[in-house]
């Protein structure tokens, strides 16, 4: 059975401010197989990498991402809870792509659209990914299933991951219907091994978020493709011991 690949959730966010160049660089240094990251749109249409729809939790500012231009967003410090990092800025997706280009790592780009509906975000993310020649490296995922369906319709070569939070009875069938290559269940989904097996039998690959140390063995035995974790170094070490 191949080992599950290890992807850093928002970079190596257990050690460095989430979704920042620092956290992504650290994931590279830890030899993670990939990273997961979140994308939203600034007021002036830039793709910015941030998890929440507001900057309140992760910066020294407050307000909605959609209400700031990129220049305005850059004024804030996104070093939340990591005092050792001096001024940490919010990265654009293009900057993150530049960092990873040529590394061979997998990028799981999660499009955050739904709480705030970012009209046209799918076209923008696809255009950038293609322009940078990185379509092969990227999996596009979203809790908004219209968004991943749209990505697939816009470009049939784009790989999409069906991201969900709660249980589905027929997740494999639903994933197939959407044209997904990947299913992204929460760790809670590991309690339903038959669903995982059905997905794999149907040719869908499973990437689980966010997996704690105790569940890594289960992922390995079930044939999970990748696990998403805040601590890629730790997970890798445990998996390599199997
Ligand atoms: O993509 C997996 C995981 O990141 C989804 O949850 O809330 O951390 O974006 P969240
Ligand atoms: Ca995410």
Automatic annotation (TrEMBL):
Entry-linked Pfam families: GDPD
Boundaries of every GP-PDE domain copy: 4-239
InterPro entries (alphabetical): GP_PDE_dom, PLC-like_Pdiesterase_TIM-brl
GO MF annotation terms: phosphoric diester hydrolase activity
Gene Ontology annotations of biological process type: lipid metabolic process
Full protein name: Glycerophosphodiester phosphodiesterase
Organism lineage: Bacteria, Bacillati, Bacillota, Bacilli, Bacillales
């Amino acid at each position: 059975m191949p080992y599950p690949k290890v992807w850093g959730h928002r970079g190596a966010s257990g050690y460095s401010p989430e979704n920042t160049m620092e956290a992504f660089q650290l994931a590279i240094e830890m030899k993670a197989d990939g990273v997961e990251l979140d994308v939203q749109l600034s007021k002036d249409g830039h793709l910015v990498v941030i998890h929440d729809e507001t900057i309140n939790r992760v910066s020294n500012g407050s307000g909605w991402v959609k209400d700031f231009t990129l220049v305005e967003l850059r004024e804030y410090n996104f070093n939340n809870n990591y005092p050792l990092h001096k001024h940490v800025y919010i990265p654009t997706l293009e900057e993150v792509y530049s960092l990873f280009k040529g590394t061979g790592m997998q990028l799981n780009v999660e499009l955050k659209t739904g709480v705030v509906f970012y009209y046209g975000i799918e076209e923008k993310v696809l255009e950038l990914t293609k322009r940078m020649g990185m379509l092969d490296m990227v999996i596009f995922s979203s809790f908004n299933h219209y968004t991943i369906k749209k990505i697939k319709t816009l470009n049939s070569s784009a790989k999409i991951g069906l991201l969900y939070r709660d249980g589905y009875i027929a997740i494999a069938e639903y994933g197939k219907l959407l044209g997904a290559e990947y299913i992204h269940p929460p760790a809670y989904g590991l309690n339903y091994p038959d669903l995982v097996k059905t997905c794999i039998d149907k040719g869908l690959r499973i990437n689980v978020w966010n997996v704690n140390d105790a569940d890594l063995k289960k992922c390995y035995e079930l044939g999970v493709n990748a696990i998403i974790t805040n601590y890629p170094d730790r997970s890798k070490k445990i998996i390599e011991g199997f």
